[in-house]
Amino acid sequence: MRARVSWTLVLAAFLAFPPFQRERVEEMGFGQIFRIERMRVDPALTQALRSRWDAEASAFAFPWGHMIPSLEDVSRITGLRVYGRAVSGYTYPCYHALAERLLDLPIERRSSLVPRAGKNAGESEDEYLARLARVSQRELASEPGPQADLDLCRFLVLFLGRLLFATRGDAVHCRFLPLLEDLGEVGGYAWGAAFLAHQFDGLSASERQTSTSGFYPFLQVWAYLHLPALRRGDLTWRGLVPIARRWDSHRDTRHLVNQLECLHEAIDSYPYLDVVWQPYLGEGDEGQPWLVQARPYFGRSVWLHALNLVLPLNLFLTQRSLGLRQSVVDFPVRDRFRRSGRSFRGLHDTTDWRERAREHIENWERKGKGVRSDATTDDAYLQAYALKYGRKVYKSARHQVDVTGEIASLRALLQSVVQDREAAQRQTTELRSELERVRGTEAGGASSSRSAGGSPSLMEDRLAGAVLRAEEAQRHLEERSERDQLRVRAETAESQVAEMTQELATLRVQRPSGDQEEVIRLRAELLAQQTLARNLQHIVTDISRSRSRSRSGVSVSRAPAPPSGSI
């Protein structure tokens, strides 16, 4: 079932509820979702982002470093609660008996939670929604009581299984049903944190999938806020909360393949200056009471729980999103709680995840661990990042230069060249001394040389040849040193570009209206540094070509002449 159709069905069921039932849904923390307008699905953006997801790190791997959707993103974009008890409990190999008891539905091949009503020809989306709501209203209890509780339980299964934690296909899974047995406890769970774990799990699927799991507007709006230069979203309604209410996806009529190719190219060449690490700096808390209790969870690395999904939120990989410099960190490795399969039906045993994941639940109850950094620059992290990912961070056909990887390798190369040059200088000095000693040897020295089977002139020629070879090696090392020094200057220029980029990005977010001249000045300096970096790279290339030509000339001049008597 398409995600937008699922949204329409769930929204129709919510609108069909009498006011007292809607209030109960609000008290559970789900009301803000139903204030969000139905957004167009952007499968190209979803697929482009999924291709950048590193399941091992639970993070996006972009050319400029890791980025991770956070609990603050969930809270501000969707309005879901990210505080409370971990969404954990029992999972069962079969839910038939539980569904019959709690939902009063006969479990046959397929049972419907809502009346089936297809869209009529020529019917608009709003007309279809209104008709579905009218049809559903006839089936719902209008007064509190056991039947109203049953209606609410059925609705929550539909909402959780087909919208918030949707999976591929039409079936509505019942894995959260055990948590709905006591409706008074439903609002005490951190459903927003469970939703984020489900998003991480969905991103780990094959990058060829164009459908998305769960509430798809979240990931789209996250990209609109953090990567605005992609221009995939339209800011239609300003000032509304949660933030997803402000946006709709940009209509793109091109073929999906063409959209995806353009998105890959745009992300590969995305200007670092336009990456928004802290999109909520100018946002207040007005009209968002759920943020008060959620704030202690922001900016912390913590384990997320959605029953059998136990996944890490590794915010220590994205310290820049907290206004810090990114320090060098150990990149995560795969955890034993990751499921090997994609299907929830693969759970063949009854499992108590509160017991199996006890240590991780305690981590959630402690609100994880705060993120700190003493780094004054991102350079060391970027070098380690480049060594780990290399060109894997580029997805377009025309890969960009891996600048950080080049910097890391050039630093090691420069150290090696310095050591080789010092060794060559010592060898040249020793050979010069030996040559001078041989040239100064008189008859006695010649006699001893002859007794050893050689001649002074032959020894002198050999030493002279060795000196020439050593001098040539030294010249070669000096050329390499000069080239590498130029590359280091290019590296310095790149570093200055990055620092100016960061400074300008900060000004973009924080600057008052009077700072436009400062931004223009920084842009000019940034352009000058980029020009310098390109010029240095051209110089390095010219030196390399010149050295290749000089080597060819030396090889020809040193080719041995044939003996005069040869034929």
From TrEMBL:
<feature type="region of interest" description="Disordered">
    <location>
        <begin position="543"/>
        <end position="567"/>
    </location>
</feature>
<feature type="domain" description="Aminotransferase-like plant mobile">
    <location>
        <begin position="29"/>
        <end position="370"/>
    </location>
</feature>
<dbReference type="InterPro" id="IPR044824">
    <property type="entry name" value="MAIN-like"/>
</dbReference>
<feature type="signal peptide">
    <location>
        <begin position="1"/>
        <end position="23"/>
    </location>
</feature>
<keyword id="KW-0732">Signal</keyword>
<dbReference type="GO" id="GO:0010073">
    <property type="term" value="P:meristem maintenance"/>
</dbReference>
<feature type="region of interest" description="Disordered">
    <location>
        <begin position="474"/>
        <end position="493"/>
    </location>
</feature>
<dbReference type="InterPro" id="IPR019557">
    <property type="entry name" value="AminoTfrase-like_pln_mobile"/>
</dbReference>
<feature type="compositionally biased region" description="Low complexity">
    <location>
        <begin position="444"/>
        <end position="457"/>
    </location>
</feature>
<feature type="compositionally biased region" description="Basic and acidic residues">
    <location>
        <begin position="474"/>
        <end position="492"/>
    </location>
</feature>
<dbReference type="Pfam" id="PF10536">
    <property type="entry name" value="PMD"/>
</dbReference>
<feature type="region of interest" description="Disordered">
    <location>
        <begin position="436"/>
        <end position="458"/>
    </location>
</feature>
<protein>
    <recommendedName>
        <fullName>Aminotransferase-like plant mobile domain-containing protein</fullName>
    </recommendedName>
</protein>
